Amino acid sequence: MPATPSHPGTSRTRSWWGWGYADAHPDNAECAAMGALLPGTLARPLPIPRVADLAIARPGATPPPALAHLITADPATRAAHAMGKAYRDVIRALRGRPGRIPDLVAHPTTHQEVADLLDWAGGHGVAVIPFGGGSSVVGGVEYRGDAHRAVLSLDLTSMNRVLEIDATSRSARIQAGALGPVLEEQLRPHGLTLRHFPQSFEFSTLGGWLATRAGGHYATVHTHIDDFVQSLHVVTPAGASTSWRLPASGAGPSPDRLFLGSEGALGIITEAWMRLQERPRYKASTSVTFADFHQALDAVRAIAQSDLAPANCRLLDPGEALLSGASHDGSAVLVLGFESATAPVDDRLTSALDLARAHGGRSGAPTADRDTPADTAVRAWRSAFLRMPYLRDGLARMGAVVETFETAATWDTLTALIDAVRTQVGAAALKATGHPATINCRLTHVYPDGAAPYFTVAVAGRPGDEVEIWDDIKAAAGDVLHRHRATITHHHAVGRDHRPGYDLQRPEPFALALRAAKDALDPHRILNPGVLVD
């Protein structure tokens, strides 16, 4: 059946230099208050950067008349497409050094327009950087280098419709430029949901999730967007690729797997058939506190290795729990949640709580969880979860260096990995800045054989040297992950910032195959240069 498009409007302005909405950023007083908690930061916050203060060069290429209506050279639009939203990007903008600003920004509306833009770019030495919501935190949407005469940012957010819903198979054909809220609002009247809610949900697109193999709402089972893919339509310089809609197939290597996680280096994902779910009717959640973080890890492992499959199973170490307001007594906090469209989940939550208590956990009674959970710690965590990127930008304005990175490792190595990050990344931060760093950890996703820890590092920087310090901390983190055979990224993608770790992690025969695919699909080497392969 056709789906009725619904585009929720907003009068709020997106920040060109930082996370999310411009009106949601901490004000000067809040920035100063946060800075006071981190000795060595600036006395007053850096000013909000202005596009008018940037040196934006004239475009290095002129599009043909047939494509001119799709393309703009507006300075503000170009500046907003220059970078993603990593700390490295934010501090460069605050310091007035955003890097290479794209010459042009295109907003195609059809597969054919994407193909025409790639044809033109390939024939004129123009690099094409795919851009969805621009929420990349790994340098995935910027151009680095000078090998191309011009740079075109290809913004797909005008391709934002749910085109078709197959209620019988419970799937939908969706354009790749649909932002999370836009997508869900179009599915809501049909009682369906994609149920993929990354932290960047408001500001990222379906195509971005697919191109980066994004992690989402579920802490177990359906942890990545891959799990919901039925088929993809991808436009490449060598032609378009459309896979069959199938529930499963054993017919050779999966064509979809070639493009999932390819980060726009092999082609532009323009449309996908996605598996949907009924909207959850039954929910229950609660929090569990632990005096000992290692006991908490054992509890989470027991839950992950059961058949309970919680939707939320996020463990906050004492520092993360304090930061989010989930705990103030030095306890670690486990946020547990279950949901279902078909049956009550109270018994599953009770069973999970029994496992947690067997490992030293303390909890109150489970509570029904509709839109506002009764559990204070759960409410505090949810609020902090959405607010954290804004607070990071506030700390950046105070000259603090804030790095976040995530990984995944098997249970037998997890404790040693977390301890090594605390000691060795902490030592690197101290050496780089002369200040002790705060290092917090939480588990975002859990599996029967391992888990995905997410680390936050905050330390006072040196004015003007924040990027170099960030690079040093990033390199130290990558070294720790590599030595413990933990992945360089569980759900943030590779981009440009994780390339060194990715090059070490992937097997060389696979690298040879990836380079061959790049040569075949992108012969002019215009698609997101520097991502995945050279």
Automatic annotation (TrEMBL):
Keywords: FAD, Flavoprotein, Oxidoreductase
Keyword match Iron-sulfur: no
A Pfam family hit: FAD-oxidase_C
Transmembrane regions: none
Signal peptide (from-to): none
Domain FAD-binding PCMH-type: 97-279
Protein family (similarity comment): Belongs to the FAD-binding oxidoreductase/transferase type 4 family.
UniProt protein name: FAD-binding oxidoreductase
Lineage of source species: Bacteria, Bacillati, Actinomycetota, Actinomycetes, Kitasatosporales
